[in-house]
Design a protein that fits this description.
alpha/beta; Copper Amine Oxidase, Chain A, domain 1; disordered C terminus; binds zinc ion; 16 strands; Aminopeptidase; 9 helices; six-stranded mixed beta sheet
Length: about 375
């Protein structure tokens, strides 16, 4: 209950922050109480540095993606794993056949093999994986010549995306955001609830055409609370849950982003209620990140959305959800560039196609993983 009060208080200030960037769905989560039946406290790893968790400036263009001259000498060290919940990321990369090189000495590290390129900036709280921005829980550090990434970030981001676990996707739950008396964001005479429903229905058709069974949380303009949506997915045995929303802000804010719930003990990318307790959604942290990555990648590559990244936030439809779950912010209803994609039927179809392709790409990836010996996926185990 104390937590609830705190949430309500911080929720007020959060409204001011979130309203500038996100649709009301992301605000709702701040005032959604934690499910007492499932939430359990977790011990938060003691941070050795980075007390001032610098929030990622949403407008900051990822310098990780800036092509920089390769300074091939001075290879980063592959050394013993560090203490305090961090690992030497070069050592981790070697396990996956990744070569490490500074693209900017002591500043930007690139790990790569034939299929994957990871770029890390010292001091930043995000990574770039195959040119898609992925928010991390802790800053990338450098100590004694070693580049360190938190074990949690190795497990829930780097390992999760580059070395996925075997899984199956037979039934997909699609959740068109808002509905009925809750229009979501409104702009230029359009309401988020209507556009999300149009996109969701197209995603459904595209998936069904590929033989995937689809469960919709709503197919009409009706009011639904946040809890009901993942419940419908669970009742219908959905293997993954994809909620579709739109952002709203000023006309010059454009781009797509995909949220997962925040790993236990960590602060969200955009700070939320302050609670860092583990919740049911955390059992799927790795799959959540992988699903988010595949959808975001399609949105950026196929619809040319600006890449706002895969982000973490304990949203109402994500944190207590039983299956891998993401919330897609498919552009800004208020954005001068994104409106051209959202308000035109042909362009909007491209968004639906990208979301469907992202889901299918995730499905193909997890279903094609070969069963591995028991040692697999233990890299980076605390
Ligand atoms: Zn929304």
């Amino acid at each position: 209950m104390i937590l609830m009060k705190k949430n309500l208080l911080t929720g007020i200030s959060l409204l001011l922050v979130a309203a500038a960037l996100c649709c009301s769905c992301t605000v709702n989560a701040a005032t959604t109480k934690t499910q007492t039946g499932t939430a359990r406290p977790v011990s938060i790893p003691k941070k050795t540095t980075a007390k001032s968790t610098k929030t990622q400036a949403s407008t900051s263009k990822s310098t990780t993606q800036a092509a920089t001259k390769s300074t091939t000498q001075a290879q980063p060290k592959a050394a013993a794993v560090s203490t305090s919940g961090y690992q030497n990321v070069v050592t981790w990369g070697k396990k996956h056949g990744m070569r490490a090189a500074w693209t900017q000495k002591n500043k930007t590290l690139r790990l790569s093999n034939d299929s994957t390129t990871i770029v890390l900036n010292i001091g930043a709280r995000h990574a770039s994986i195959n040119n898609i921005k992925i928010a991390l829980c802790q800053n990338v550090k450098m100590s004694g010549g070693n580049v360190l990434v938190s074990t949690q970030d190795i497990n829930t981001a780097l390992e999760a995306i580059t070395n996925p676990r075997k899984n199956a996707v037979r039934i997909v739950a699609i959740d068109p955001g808002h509905g009925g008396s809750q229009p979501g964001a409104k702009h230029s005479g359009k309401a988020e609830k209507d556009i999300t429903l149009l996109i969701a229905k197209e995603v459904r058709t595209l998936l069904q055409n590929k033989g995937v069974k689809v469960v919709m949380t709503r197919t009409t303009d009706r009011t639904m609370d946040l809890k009901t949506r993942p419940q419908i997915a669970a009742q219908n045995h959905a293997d993954i849950f994809v909620s579709i929303h739109l952002n709203a802000a000023s006309a010059d804010a454009n781009g797509a982003e995909v949220f997962t719930t925040t790993p236990a003990g960590a602060q969200s990318t955009t700070p939320d209620s302050g609670s860092t307790a583990a919740t049911r959604g955390n059992k799927n942290d790795a799959a959540n990140a992988l699903l988010a990555y595949h959808i975001q990648r399609q949105l950026v590559q196929k619809v040319q959305f600006s890449d706002r990244g895969v982000k973490r936030k304990r949203l109402g439809v994500l944190y207590d959800t039983a299956m891998p779950a993401v919330l897609v912010e498919a552009g800004f209803i208020s954005g001068s560039k994104d409106q051209k994609k959202l308000f035109n039927a042909t362009e909007r179809s491209k968004i639906a196609k990208a979301i469907a392709e992202g889901i299918l790409s995730y499905k193909k990836t997890v279903e094609s993983v070969k069963p591995t010996p028991t040692k697999s996926n233990t890299a980076g185990k605390p």
